[in-house]
Write a structure and sequence with these properties.
By secondary structure, the chain is mainly alpha-helical. The chain is built from five helices and no strands. It has a domain of 68 residues. 79% of the residues lie in helices and 0% in strands. α2 runs antiparallel to α4 and α2 crosses α5.
Length: 104
Amino acid sequence: MIRLRKNGQPFFFLMIFLTLFISVPFQPVFAALIETETAISTDRVKDTRVLLKQLIAREDIRKALLSYGINPAEADARVASMTHSEICSIKDQMDNLMLEAMAC
């Protein structure tokens, strides 16, 4: 038994060290809840940005942009650089126009 203690001592210290090393977290993980409105608005912005890019890709809208002297590639770049609030504002305007068109 004494021989096991003397010969196994480095192994025991290694096992103790590894156990402590594994059990102590390196970085604490901070999880926070996000509001539902924040998650929805992020999805809404992505969907609206995709919708605007699809509209600009349409041939009739490209012709209309060119007739106003606007390069469609430049309009696409402007949509890509819009902020979240600008995208939400455009979405609200589009929704209002849809409601007005349906009321007529």
